[in-house]
Amino acid sequence: MTRRHFLAASAAPLVAQPRRPNIIFLLGDDHRWDALGCMGNPIIRTPNLDELGRNGVIFQKNFVTTAICVSSRASLFTGLYSRCHKIWEFRNEFPADTLSRTYPMLLRDAGYRTGFIGKWGIDGGKPPSAHFDYWRGFQGQGRYFPDPQNPKLHLTTVMGNQAIEFLNNSGPDRPFCLSVSFKAPHVQDEDPRQFLADPQDDELYRNVEIPVPKTAAPEYIRALPLSVQRSEARRRWAVRFATPELFQQSVKNYYRLISGIDRVTGRIREQLRRMGAEDNTVIIYTGDNGFYLAEHGLAGKWFMHEESIRTPLIIHDPRQQQSRRGRRIEAMTLNIDCAPTMLDLAGLRPPPSMQGRSMLPLANGARTEWREEFFYEHHFSSNGWLPSTEGVRTTDWKYTLYTDEPQTTEELFDLKADPLEERNLAASAAPQMLTRLRERRQAWIRQLDQWTPDKSWQDPA
After folding, report:
1. Which regions of 301-347 does DSSP assign to beta strands (E)?
2. What whole-number distance in Å separates Cα of residue 2 and Cα of residue 7?
3. Which of 43, 8, 113 is nearest to 293 (CA)?
4. Is the peptide bond before 185 cis (omega within 30 degrees of 0)?
5. Residue-wise over 152-191: b if at least 16 C-beta within 10 A, else e?
6. CA-CA distance, 237 to 432, in Å (whole number)?
7. Contacting residues for 439 by C-beta, under 8 A, at least 6 apart
8. What three-state secondary structure class fits 151?
9. Distance between CA atoms of 76 and 282, rounded to whole angstroms?
10. How far apart are CA 233 and CA 169, in angstroms?
11. DSSP β-ladder status, 397-402 and 389-394
12. 75 near 64, Cβ under 8 Å?
């Protein structure tokens, strides 16, 4: 048996499915969990994504296991923690055997027509265009206004046009999986304007005052380790949020970029209706990591605060029973759960070495045991300007270790009593919980370091 045939067999059909669903996977870049109307944000306008949530399932507590684009995207593709897929730097690339175990490759092996649009995110080597039936991906950050001949044409609109092109060329005889990886709402790095929204959205939020978060006050950055105070996250805060005017401008343009994604989502759904494919197409929306909007005196992501690691997640499955729709699920889901979920949708058994879990039992209301903690790590250094962090988040507690500090620097938060992470209990309270979560971090590291692609995975007990 060849390796390709072995991998195809490891993702073999669970049961015969005469009509497998189409899958559309939409990914926002730096889209934090609460920047949607359906997540309780009273200002942002996202009617199409909100409608997906009303008629689908919203996962209230979805997290990334590493809050940086390259590592998080690798986790989305592979269903693996970063410590196992080992994609830490933008110059890294997937080895051939790892690429073959990503959800697009496994779905293509199983007969799906696959398309990829937008930011690939893993920039080492050549782009994997030959491994897709339709490729409009790019390496690097891309440009929000890519066409000098049409300077007002926004990249989000271009990607919407490409999605329509893919759908127009998809027929009913073969299921498809389309991945649309938006640049929005990521900043345009090195551009002093930072958030470059579509000009057609200039009027959105113009007469709105965005509330400043409580933890943007100066005392919160002073409470963090020196390495964080001097980090790239603080430098970028100065560029985006240092004055009231900058704060309003940046957040409004961040919201405008998300509203642009929402408009493309509406276009995609309208095209599905025209094709008669709406009733058999599952749409998943999530973000690759969160984003500080001045909380804790920071910008960007990278660290372990909720603003950085928590993202939206909606699964809209039109085949689902009406009684199951519109629910909000509190179970702790992760970016590594997306790949096995898409394989499960296609009737495929995920490779046993995948560390994520299919979310379909949760979405369908089945009683199932589920995780109550996960391991977080971030080791992208940016030439030393981003301190490394590791930690464990449970349903109610969070433990963070800043591993680059000259002395051990820890944080412990009781999230139930302190959801804004204002009171660090590591030095003065909850010693038993501190000891327990230190031990859990070590247990996770031991088990992750023993992972291999040829044996089944279980979270550490």
Report:
1. 310-311, 313-316, 327-334
2. 9
3. 43
4. yes
5. ebbbbbbbbebbbebbeebeeeebbbbbbbbbbbbbbeee
6. 35
7. none
8. coil
9. 17
10. 43
11. antiparallel
12. yes
- Spatial neighbors of 320 by CB under 8 A, at least 6 apart, are 56, 57, 363, 364
For residue 349, what are the contacts with CB-CB under 8 A and spacing of at least 6?
10, 11, 12, 13, 14, 343
Q: CA dihedral defined by 111, 338, 457, 440, rounded to 10 degrees? A: 170
CB 139 within 8 A of CB 123: yes
Q: What pLDDT score was predicted for residue 428? A: 80
Half-sphere exposure of 61 (CA within 13 A, CB side): 16
Question: Tokens 């057609």 — which residue?
Answer: 200
274: left (phi over 0), alpha (psi -120 to 50) or beta: alpha
- Write the burial class of residue 347 (CB in 10 Å: 0-12 exposed, 13-18 middle, 19+ buried): middle
* β-bridge partners, 392: 375, 399
Who's near 61: CB < 8 A, 6+ residues apart?
310, 330, 331, 332, 333
Q: How far is CA 56 from CA 38, 103, 278, 290, 317, in A?
A: 11, 22, 13, 22, 6
- Classify 459 as helix, strand or coil: coil
Backbone angles phi, psi at 397, to 5 degrees: -130, 155
List CB contacts of 428: < 8 A, sequence separation 6 or more: none
CA–CA dist 249, 254 (Å, integer): 9
How far is the C-alpha of 119 from the C-alpha of 122, rounded, in Å?
A: 9
For 44-192, strand residue ranges (E) read 57-63, 113-119, 134-138, 176-181
- Cα separation, 81 vs 76, in Å, equals 9
- DSSP assignment of 380-432, as one string? --TTTTS--EEEEEESSEEEEEETTSSS-EEEEEETTT-TT-----TTTS-HH
- Residue 425 and residue 423: Cα distance in Å, rounded? 6
What stretches in the chain show pLDDT beneath 70?
1-18, 382-383, 406
